[in-house]
């Protein structure tokens, strides 16, 4: 079947060469029109299965998750400025004021600010000031006020001692002490007077407590205000770093999702224009300041651009590397260009297929153009080298093309089929990123194979017809050197085997030291905005400003929310926790109970007003007392004359008391007392207003859960979902992306809440998928390769021998990774199916050529001839593939650089083993048959 198909290919390319070239040119034009612009999806969400629960969670919570995403401008004072903290603040705020209108005029920006204006409303002042400590102090003050009111008999109804003296003066005549003595009434009146004297004296002494009472009230208000201000300061203020050297200006875009690439690119472009305008303003001093732009919107756009640029650069560099490798392998610049044209076509077709099948590339597939270059060129090299070899034997172009297609075509078809089968196994992965890689690469390899199988022979036919029909292709000849190398290896086969076993044992030890080290930074392209973000997180470490990575927790009640917050604060990786609970009283229920009982302050206000009137009437009281003293002195004289000694003594005692009270009254500083009472009155009035406002708030919300309903709309929108769920934002440290730290964090968090989300969860879920996919895809790849090899070479020994470069190359690669301190990550874990596909190709080509030479030569000679001829193609293909993956070392994505280095190890070792260990193993395997 395969022979017939190859015969058909020969006829088409031989007799319809122009038609073949024309058809490909037409397809290239159509592909160019279709493929640009080429989409690249830079979100890690694109790597997960679309039915993954975490994707569904993200979609359900997208508005809430993106509510803390901003376009962030970091304004900084350079080190060594010599400015004080206040001077830094003034400079940065001045620049921020210039920047605000520049950002605000952007249509895609909804709001701009450099300070948190989500402060607690004034009507909640007392509620927020009533901590456990201040509530106790308020209750203690109430006790003092009640005690004072009792001491001075402030009832607000005129029942004071001063009023009683007026009554006594009015009742004096009824005693008869002036005319007709009624002894019983006189004694009763004197007893009343004695009581009033004692009471009034106590009241006068209590007035001395006014200053202390006013001081206590004033101190309490100051404490309440300080508590309020501290809470306000913790919730509001400018977004300054800890040392005040950086001020953040946060802009909230009109669209919540930063995963809308087109929107992110528009926002990024306009934000950068605003910064350029700022730098032209006089307020911005280039020598003193620096400005950085970051945020998820910015990083999304910049990383996408960087990925496209990396893809372009790696493709260009790998193409140049391939051309250079071709020149040194072929010795002809023309043939290097000739073989490169189908390569470009293959890459273009593969990109068109990628856009058609999966809508472009994701983070894991951006390097596929370079990969296709490396894999596809193998087919061209083997075809061109075989064609040159046949032409060097002085056969016609027609015969050379026929033998090349029929003989070499089988080998490259089997190689392409095995490689495509390996990548096809990625479709069984659970990770969407790997699935898309399989969907793109597997057909892409077969596309490349057919492009070379049809287009390269057609180009050779046309070239030979027009420019060199009778002239054979002249290429550099390295066969003698390769023959000598293979002969040396066979000669020293025991030493080669010993060294191979020892190195393999050492590599195996190193392989067991490797581990899976997953972090999202491996797939996050290094761009300026990401560096700015890292700097901000360092400078704002420990502050209350929400920067960096966050987790969002959802709760159905305040009690649940508070419990989650208390648990999270115990985790060392959590920097800060923010929720609407920060804007609510500490103990709502206890405060509600107190406020409902605190109803006496208004009465005390009236009592103080009465006391103020009493103090103002001091001179009137003194006059009454002196009049009373005069009356009593006259009555005492009468009692003495009438021998009423007992009444005379009682009168004398009362007169002494009255005189003492009068002196106390005269000693009062009326103006000072009135000022003190007025100050106390103002304090009590202020407290009464605060109590009334607080009570009104709590009456509107008859339980703590309803308190949220009286909060401002903006505050509720930030911390409460449309479904009425409470949101808590937990800022975490950057080390959360370390695999072990993230795993432990998730284990702990799952005991706290089952309803939460954070972008690091994507990494954790992706880690699980890729670990599973690594083993599954590698296992299926080995099974498929075993089946294809057995069906292709139809010999178990040959099938096993063909896997030697693959098996030992992979093992040595693992040992090399350990020596270089590398581990498996998100990207280089896919080196397994990649190396399986590439490594087995070398063995297949060499085994096929050996079988061909073996038909009419002995074992050793067949190995030497086969490996010297095909070995050059193997070396060239390996070098070109190394050039492809070497280009990844310049990529700005750390994972791609590690992938490039890992591939260099694997492919390099596979090439060396193909020309050293494989011929030795082949000789030993069949030497017994030869004998």
Question: What order do the helices and strands come in, and which of them pair?
Answer:
Blueprint: H1 2-15, H2 17-35, H3 53-60, H4 62-65, E1 71-77, H5 85-104, E2 109-113, E3 115-116, H6 125-129, H7 132-151, H8 161-171, H9 183-207, H10 210-235, E4 237-238, E5 246-253, H11 261-279, E6 289-294, H12 296-330, H13 333-358, H14 368-392, H15 397-424, H16 432-466, H17 479-491, H18 493-511, H19 528-539, E7 550-555, H20 558-568, E8 574-579, H21 588-597, H22 601-616, H23 618-641, H24 645-666, H25 670-700, H26 713-719, E9 726-732, H27 739-749, E10 756-758, H28 759-793, H29 796-802, H30 804-819, H31 831-854, H32 859-886, H33 894-930
Antiparallel strand pairs: 1-5, 1-6, 2-5, 3-4, 7-9, 7-10, 8-9
Note poorly predicted spans.
Answer: 155-159
**DSSP helix count?**
33
Strand content: 5-15%
Based on DSSP secondary structure assignment, what is the total number of beta strands?
10
Q: Quickly give the structural class.
A: mainly alpha
Major β-sheet strand ordering? 2-5-1-6
Computed Rg: 46 Å
Indicate the overall shape: rod-shaped
Please estimate the helix content: 55-70%
Mean pLDDT: 78
- The end-to-end span amounts to 35 Å
How many strands, what sense, and barrel or not for the largest sheet? Answer: 4 strands, antiparallel
Summarize this entry quickly.
This protein has 931 residues and is mainly alpha-helical.
């Amino acid at each position: 079947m395969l022979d017939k198909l190859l015969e058909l290919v020969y006829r088409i390319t031989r007799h319809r060469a122009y038609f073949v070239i024309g058809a490909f040119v037409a397809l290239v034009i159509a592909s160019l029109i279709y493929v640009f612009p080429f989409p690249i999806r830079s979100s890690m969400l694109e790597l997960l299965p679309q039915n993954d629960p975490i994707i569904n969670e993200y979609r359900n919570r997208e508005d809430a998750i993106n509510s803390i995403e901003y376009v962030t401008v970091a304004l900084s004072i350079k080190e060594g400025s010599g400015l004080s903290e206040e001077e830094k603040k003034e400079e940065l705020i001045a620049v921020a004021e210039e920047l605000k209108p520049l950002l605000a005029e952007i249509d895609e920006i909804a709001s701009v600010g450099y300070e948190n204006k989500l402060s607690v409303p004034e009507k909640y002042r007392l509620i927020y000031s009533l901590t456990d400590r201040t509530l106790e102090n308020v209750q203690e003050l109430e006790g003092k006020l009640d005690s004072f009111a009792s001491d001075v008999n402030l009832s607000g109804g005129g029942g004071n001692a001063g009023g009683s003296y007026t009554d006594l003066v009015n009742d004096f005549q009824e005693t008869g002490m002036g005319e007709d003595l009624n002894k019983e009434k006189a004694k009763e009146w004197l007893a009343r007077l004695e009581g009033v004297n004692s009471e009034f004296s106590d009241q006068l002494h209590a007035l001395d407590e006014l200053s202390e009472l006013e001081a206590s009230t004033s101190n309490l208000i100051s404490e309440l205000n300080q508590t309020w201000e501290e809470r306000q300061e913790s919730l509001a203020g400018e977004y300054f770093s800890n040392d005040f050297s950086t001020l953040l200006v946060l802009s909230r875009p009109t669209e919540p999702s930063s995963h809308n690439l087109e929107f992110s690119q528009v926002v990024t472009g306009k934000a950068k224009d605003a910064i350029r305008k700022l730098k032209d303003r006089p307020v911005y001093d280039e020598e003193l300041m620096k400005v950085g732009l970051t945020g998820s919107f910015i990083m999304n756009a910049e990383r996408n651009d960087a990925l496209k640029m990396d893809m372009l650069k790696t493709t260009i560099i790998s193409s140049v590397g391939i051309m250079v490798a071709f020149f040194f392998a072929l010795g002809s610049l023309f043939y290097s260009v000739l073989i490169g044209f189908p390569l470009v076509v293959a890459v273009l077709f593969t990109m068109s297929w990628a856009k058609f099948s999966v809508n472009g590339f994701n983070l894991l597939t951006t390097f596929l153009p370079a990969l296709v270059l490396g894999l596809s060129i193998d087919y061209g090299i083997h075809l061109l080298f075989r064609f040159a070899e046949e032409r060097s034997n002085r056969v016609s172009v027609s015969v050379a093309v026929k033998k090349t297609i029929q003989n070499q075509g089988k080998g490259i078809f089997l190689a392409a089929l095995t490689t495509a089968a390996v990548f096809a196994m990625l479709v069984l992965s659970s990770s969407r990123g790997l699935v898309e890689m399989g969907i793109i690469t597997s057909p892409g390899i077969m596309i490349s194979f057919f492009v070379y199988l049809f287009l390269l022979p057609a180009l050779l036919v046309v070239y030979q017809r027009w420019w060199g029909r009778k002239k054979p292709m002249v290429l550099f000849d390295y066969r003698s050197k390769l023959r000598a190398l293979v002969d040396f290896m066979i000669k020293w086969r025991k030493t080669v085997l010993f060294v191979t076993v020892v190195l393999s044992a050492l590599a195996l030890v190193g392989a067991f030291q490797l581990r899976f080290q997953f972090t999202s930074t491996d797939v996050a392209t290094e761009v300026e905005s990401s560096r700015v973000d890292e700097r901000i997180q360092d400078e704002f470490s420990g502050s209350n400003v929400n920067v960096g990575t966050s987790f969002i927790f959802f709760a159905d009640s305040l009690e649940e929310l508070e419990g989650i917050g208390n648990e999270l604060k115990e985790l060392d990786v959590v920097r800060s926790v923010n929720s609407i609970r920060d804007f609510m009283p500490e103990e709502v229920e206890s405060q509600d109970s107190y406020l409902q009982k605190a109803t006496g302050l208004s009465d005390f206000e009236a009592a103080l007003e009465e006391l103020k009137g009493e103090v103002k009437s001091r001179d009137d009281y003194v006059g009454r007392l002196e009049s009373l003293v005069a009356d009593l002195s006259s009555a005492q004289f009468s009692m003495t004359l009438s021998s009423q000694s007992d009444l005379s003594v009682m009168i004398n005692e009362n007169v002494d008391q009255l005189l003492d009270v009068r002196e106390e009254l005269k000693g009062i500083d009326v103006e000072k007392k009135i000022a003190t009472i007025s100050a106390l009155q103002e304090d009590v009035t202020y407290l009464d207003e605060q109590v009334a406002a607080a009570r009104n708030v709590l009456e509107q919300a008859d339980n703590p859960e309803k308190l949220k309903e009286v909060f401002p709309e903006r505050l509720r929108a930030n911390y409460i979902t449309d479904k009425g769920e409470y949101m808590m934002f937990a800022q975490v440290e950057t080390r959360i992306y370390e695999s072990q730290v993230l795993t432990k964090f998730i284990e702990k968090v799952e005991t706290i809440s089952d309803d939460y989300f954070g972008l690091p969860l994507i990494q954790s879920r992706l880690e699980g998928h890729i670990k599973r996919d690594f083993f599954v895809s590698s296992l299926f790849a080995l099974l498929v390769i075993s089946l294809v090899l057995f069906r292709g070479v139809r010999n178990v020994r040959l099938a096993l021998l063909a896997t030697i470069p693959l098996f030992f190359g992979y093992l040595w690669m693992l040992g090399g990774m350990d020596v270089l301190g590398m581990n498996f990550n998100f990207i280089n874990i896919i080196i397994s199916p990649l190396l399986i596909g590439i490594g087995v190709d070398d063995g297949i080509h060499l085994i096929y050529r050996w079988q061909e030479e073996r038909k009419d030569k002995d074992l050793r000679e067949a190995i030497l001839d086969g490996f010297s001829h095909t070995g050059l193609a193997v070396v060239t293909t390996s070098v070109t593939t190394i050039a492809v993956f070497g280009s990844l070392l310049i990529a700005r994505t750390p994972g791609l650089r590690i992938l490039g280095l890992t591939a260099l190890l694997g492919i390099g070792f596979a090439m060396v083993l193909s020309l050293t260990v494989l011929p030795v193993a082949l000789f030993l395997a069949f030497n017994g048959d030869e004998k």
